[in-house]
């Protein structure tokens, strides 16, 4: 179990220490479950009433909330960020792989940096380049001439297709597929003719991709994911999509081909984005948003239908089917009013 003194933690977080710096912190917990050896955090003042009952050894708070703390505290501008950084310091997640397993296959033409680890039954094909301290989990496949930058980690059963280029310090969760064929076909009198996808996928540094997500290779040009992008589980990134720096995409989102998403965007869960459009830097799309047209101005956009009781929804759906009829009747009424005037 990892542990750290409160004084050491304060120094690493550049936080202001109030109380006993010698106490030892071994884990993080929520305010209602924290006890001895735990540190917790208060990121919203509306929950400050719970501070008096909190049993944690220390609390991370903003300056405005310090007066409500009865015990040890670390004061910082953003306690939630403090929580994230503390979680990193106390993280006990095991490595994706250690050493090179005897059951792994590594091509003699592959290039491995210092400290590379490869798990059982993984396959590293011809021409692959693995940077220093890369970890490849059990059952992974890394295709011909793929490049993984230093400190990148693949959890079990990740598939990286040929020619994919991935930067440094990336994290790819289990069962994700990067570089599979995009959905490209021509129609010959009702018969689908496959178009070989000759582009690849280029991923920047510090990119994290969740479990069972797919990122398709480009049809002609490349699919591009810039530095700092985070993508959740079960997402579909189609061929030739471009995603700008530090954009966040939540689970089950689907992005159609050749769409360009700007920097610092946020896409909520289960969004659907049409192909061949652009989304401006700094755009937020709330969950279940359906983006059918380009977004040229940053802001928050929504289109999902809130949940209703079934009877109310059925009435609304029935009326929706009559919108065209109602529109025609309204036009008739408008013309009659105009004639009477």
From TrEMBL:
SUPFAM superfamilies: Trimeric LpxA-like enzymes. The keyword Lipid metabolism applies. GO terms for molecular function: N-acyltransferase activity; UDP-3-O-[(3R)-3-hydroxyacyl]-glucosamine N-acyltransferase activity. The active site is at residue 239. Its EC number is 2.3.1.191. It is an enzyme of class 2 (transferase). Keywords: Acyltransferase, Lipid A biosynthesis, Lipid biosynthesis, Lipid metabolism, Repeat, Transferase. Pathway: Bacterial outer membrane biogenesis; LPS lipid A biosynthesis. One of its GO terms (cellular component) is membrane. GO terms for biological process: lipid A biosynthetic process. Residues 23-89 form the UDP-3-O-[3-hydroxymyristoyl] glucosamine N-acyltransferase non-repeat region domain. The keyword Lipid metabolism applies. It catalyses: a UDP-3-O-[(3R)-3-hydroxyacyl]-alpha-D-glucosamine + a (3R)-hydroxyacyl-[ACP] = a UDP-2-N,3-O-bis[(3R)-3-hydroxyacyl]-alpha-D-glucosamine + holo-[ACP] + H(+). Catalyzes the N-acylation of UDP-3-O-acylglucosamine using 3-hydroxyacyl-ACP as the acyl donor. Is involved in the biosynthesis of lipid A, a phosphorylated glycolipid that anchors the lipopolysaccharide to the outer membrane of the cell. Homotrimer. Belongs to the transferase hexapeptide repeat family. LpxD subfamily. NCBIfam families: lipid_A_lpxD (TIGR01853), PRK00892.1 (NF002060). This is UDP-3-O-acylglucosamine N-acyltransferase. It comes from Enterovibrio norvegicus DSM 15893. The gene is lpxD.
